[in-house]
Amino acid sequence: MIYSNKLLSVRSWQSGDESYLALNANNKNISDAMPSKFPHPYTYDDAVYWIKHNKNKLQQNNFAVIYDNEPVGNIGFAKGKVQNQHTGNITIWIGKEYWKKGIASEVINFFTGYCFNKFGVKKLYVKTSFDNKRAISLFNRTGFKKEDIFVKNNNISDELIFSLSQK
Question: What 3 state SS string does the chain have?
Answer without folding.
Answer: CCEECCCEEEECCCCCCHHHHHHHHCCHHHHHHCCCCCCCCCCHHHHHHHHHHHHCCCCCCEEEEEECCEEEEEEEEEECCHHHCCEEEEEEEECHHHCCCCHHHHHHHHHHHHHHHHHCCCEEEEEEECCCHHHHHHHHHCCCEEEEEEEECCEEEEEEEEEEECC
